[in-house]
């Protein structure tokens, strides 16, 4: 793609970041390069949920899809506006990142599209028990097929490397992380501080940048089929087919 086209897309992305209405920003500018998918978490008190990782990856020379759930129902109402089949871009290496409810969705997406790796920060790993859910009023809108990520991961026999980062002193987050303990391809990364906002601590320390760079540089070389037309209905709906 010509440099002018890439610059134009970057300019459009910077406009979208300040618009509260879009649920996605798509930058598929680099043929045969890795793809980073980033899913935002819970909305702040005075605005929409963030496009997670946008500021620290906006200059990264890689394909990027930023998603956020404007309805705050763990992405189960879908994220519309994405109709591009990323297979057409020659993308066969995918890393998925997510924070909080975005971490929950990142694990599902990573498993369903057979991504190379997932990095989930303070994620929910089950959403059927109100005691361990912060957005309790949203539970009635959810679909029970993905209430618990353990059977989802087991049933798909995922080869995706799933990394879960959490503050072990934040009891809700520790419970969610340990729910997937001892499962194949799951690695837990406990920290002594950070709370539910651990991702901010990792960002400020520079560790998050290292995780992103390492993930994109060391993704498995085996081609990954990410043709969303052959994936379950949740993913097809998520990507706006």
Task: Describe the protein's architecture and organization.
- The chain has eight helices and seven strands.
- It is an alpha/beta fold and 241 residues long.
- It has one domain (3-238): Alpha/Beta hydrolase fold, catalytic domain (Rossmann fold, 3-Layer(aba) Sandwich), CATH 3.40.50.1820.
- It has a seven-stranded mixed beta sheet, sandwiched between helices.
- α3 packs parallel to α4 (149-156).
- The chain is globular, with a radius of gyration of 17 Å.
CATH T-level fold name:
Rossmann fold
Classification by helices and strands: alpha/beta
How many separate domains make up the residues?
1
Backbone CA Rg: 17 Å
What gap, in angstroms, lies between the N and C termini? 25 Å
Largest sheet: 7 strands, mixed
Q: Give helix and strand order, one letter per element, not per position.
A: HEEHEEHEHEHEHHH
Give me the CATH architecture, please. 3-Layer(aba) Sandwich
Topology readout:
Elements: H1 3-16, E1 24-27, E2 35-39, H2 54-57, E3 63-67, E4 94-99, H3 101-112, E5 117-121, H4 149-156, E6 161-167, H5 171-178, E7 186-191, H6 198-205, H7 207-217, H8 233-238
Parallel strand pairs: 2-3, 2-4, 4-5, 5-6, 6-7
Antiparallel strand pairs: 1-3
Helix pairs in contact: 3-4
């Amino acid at each position: 793609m010509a440099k002018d086209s890439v610059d134009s897309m970057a300019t459009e992305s910077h406009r979208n970041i300040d618009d509260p209405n879009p649920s996605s920003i798509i930058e598929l500018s680099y043929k045969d390069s890795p793809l980073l998918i980033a899913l935002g978490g819970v909305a702040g008190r005075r605005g929409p949920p963030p496009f997670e990782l946008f500021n620290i990856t906006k200059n990264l020379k890689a394909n990027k899809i930023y998603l956020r759930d404007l309805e705050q129902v763990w992405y189960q109402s879908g994220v519309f506006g994405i109709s591009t089949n990323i297979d057409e871009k020659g993308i066969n290496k995918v890393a998925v990142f997510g924070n909080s409810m975005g971490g929950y969705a990142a694990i599902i997406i990573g498993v369903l599209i057979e991504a190379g790796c997932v990095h989930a920060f303070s994620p929910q790993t089950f959403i059927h028990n109100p005691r361990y859910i912060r957005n309790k009023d949203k539970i009635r809108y959810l679909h029970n097929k993905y209430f618990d990520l353990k059977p989802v991961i087991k049933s798909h026999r995922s080869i995706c490397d799933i990394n879960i980062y959490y503050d072990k002193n934040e009891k809700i987050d520790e419970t969610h992380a340990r729910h997937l303990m001892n499962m194949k391809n799951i690695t837990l990364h406990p920290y002594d501080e950070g709370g539910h906002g651990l991702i901010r601590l990792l960002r400020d320390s520079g560790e998050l940048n290292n995780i992103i760079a390492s993930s994109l540089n060391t993704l498995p070389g085996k081609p990954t089929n990410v043709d969303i037309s052959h994936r379950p209905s949740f993913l097809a709906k998520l990507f706006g087919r």
